[in-house]
Write a structure and sequence with these properties.
Layout (H helix, E strand, L loop, with lengths): L1 E10 L2 E11 L4 E5 L6 H8 L7 E6 L2 E2 L5 H7 E4 L11 H6 L14 H13 L15 H14 L4 E5 L7 H18 L2 E5 L3 H7 L2 E6 L2 E6 L1 H4 L2 H8 L4 E4 L6 E4 L8 E3 L5 E3 L3 H5 L1
Helix pairs in contact: 4-5
Bound molecules: adenosine-5'-triphosphate.
GO molecular function, one term: ATP binding
InterPro entries: AAA+_ATPase (IPR003593), ABC_transporter-like_ATP-bd (IPR003439), ABC_transporter-like_CS (IPR017871), P-loop_NTPase (IPR027417)
Organism: Calditerricola satsumensis
Length: 281
């Protein structure tokens, strides 16, 4: 479904993507992880055709992404961004209905089918009671659910998510990704998501791509990529990788720096001698 070959992109003479290649089969879910500035969002912008690479090619569903007309591409591919504040106080229903724009014919408004799709999506995401509420009166979690409803109304075959869980609490994070996964499985959707949270990436993605300094430094199943030496080299910290007790997926624990409130015992384990607050007080 997605075929990225040897893509290079520079800003102001500095290479941000350096020969990135990535193939994503139809119906797969791939997480792109990596440190700040690694080029993850740039890769997503290249994938969605917003940014043109300096070299290399990006194909989606058998054609170069830049060869699609705008409306045609919007029927194929949708992007869920991390920040979803609407510039105007549209109601929830109005905002979700914008997802149907790529399907509207000139001089003809919404069809009964468009209205039915919007109603179904509002219902699926339990937004019907909020349909007439202006989006700027909603909480961050509710706004992100509306943004997801909008891209669902777009009925794409490819969904790109750019750090979609950044402003959400853990309950809303899991809720959002559960919905994306259900949608993916029911409709054969192809998903590429940029995630900072390595544990969510391990739990939700079939495959993880680790980007650092504009290059793919590792890719594979979560257990192959989320290895302590790899993460230590890329993130400059010493993580501990453990297994999720229920599903066995790798989960990454971080180690805080040593301070006066901690001590290292003979077995090498760090133990709290007193709370950091008590130490300071
Ligand atoms: N439009 C732009 N103009 C100039 N430089 C840019 C532009 N977009 C991105 N960059 C630079 O490219 C590099 C990669 O940015 P990008 O946003 O792709 O990284 P990222 O991996 O998504 O980072 P983060 O995790 O911090 O969001 C950064 O150094 C950034 O400053």
């Amino acid at each position: 479904m997605i075929d990225v070959r040897d893509v290079w992109k520079a800003y102001g003479g500095r290479d941000v993507l350096r020969g990135v290649s990535l193939e994503v089969p139809a119906g797969a879910c791939v997480a792109v992880i990596g440190p700040n500035g690694a080029g993850k969002s740039t890769l997503l912008r290249v994938l969605s055709g917003v940014v043109e690479p300096d070299r290399g090619s990006v194909w989606v569903a058998g054609r170069p992404v830049r060869a699609y007309r705008r409306r045609e591409l919007a029927r194929l591919l949708a992007v869920l961004p991390q920040e979803t504040a609407a510039p105007f106080p549209f109601t929830v229903r109005e905002l979700v209905a914008m997802g149907r724009h790529p399907y509207l014919r000139p001089l003809r408004g919404e069809t009964p089918h468009d209205r039915a799709v919007v109603a179904r999506v509002l219902d699926e995401l339990k937004l019907t009671p909020l349909a007439d509420v202006p989006v700027d009166r909603l909480s961050g979690g509710q706004r992100q659910r509306v943004a997801l409803a909008r891209v669902m109304a777009q009925e794409p075959r490819v969904l790109l998510l750019d750090e979609p869980t950044t402003y959400l609490d853990i309950g809303h994070q899991v809720n959002l990704l559960d919905r994306v996964r259900r949608w993916q499985r029911q409709n054969g959707l192809t998903v590429v998501m940029v995630l900072h949270d390595l544990n969510l990436a391990a739990l939700y993605a079939d495959e993880v791509v680790l980007l650092a300094e504009g290059r793919v430094v590792a890719r594979g199943r979560p257990a192959e990529v989320l290895a302590e030496p790899t993460l230590a080299a890329v993130y400059g910290t010493r993580p501990l990788v453990v297994r999720h007790p229920e599903c066995g997926a790798p989960q990454v624990l971080v180690r805080p720096a040593r301070d006066e409130a901690r001590g290292e015992e003979a077995d090498g384990q760090w133990r709290m001698n007193a709370s950091p607050c008590a130490a300071r007080g």
